[in-house]
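Hi everyone, sorry if this is the wrong subforum. Our group has a chain we'd like a structural model of before ordering constructs, and none of us has done structure prediction before. Sequence below.
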Amino acid sequence: MLTAPAHSGPRVPAPTHAPAAMSAPGSSPSPARAFARWVSGPTPAAVPLVRARVRAVLDGWRIAADIADTLLLAVSELVGNVVQHASASTCRMRVGISCHGGWLRLEVTDGATGPLRLPEPAVEVDPDAEGGRGLLLIQLLAAEAGGELAVLVHEFGKSVRLRVPAS
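Answer:
Right subforum, don't worry. Here is the predicted structure as tokens:
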């Protein structure tokens, strides 16, 4: 669990994961055993902490920089959305990343039950708007990489899942 002790600033424990098999530089991890996940309270301090953990996992898996950048932007946006929109209705969020069958999957889950849908591309965007483009940008980056963004609503809340090719 990501925690923030009152006396020393945020602490980030090691992820819950299965170790990836040894791989040659530039190759993907063993698809059968490559995953990591974290549970955290939806606080602003969690955003950079989770991002750093995801970066460390992707570096360890030797994921190409362009794909890693897409996932890092996505995890910042999705965790930020939980902090901004769901923190009042949930006390925890779960972030997971996995590599299986040539695909990377990032999933951010919260306990909020409000409706969520993926945005439709707007014909015009208000240049003065301070927000409202994050999920659309992630959706477009996923499509450009040959992947997809999906929202799953379940009895315990919702999950936003990004899936992109690992190479």
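For your construct planning: Strands lie at 16-18, 34-40, 93-100, 103-110, 148-154, 157-165. Residues 1-32 have pLDDT under 50 and may be disordered.
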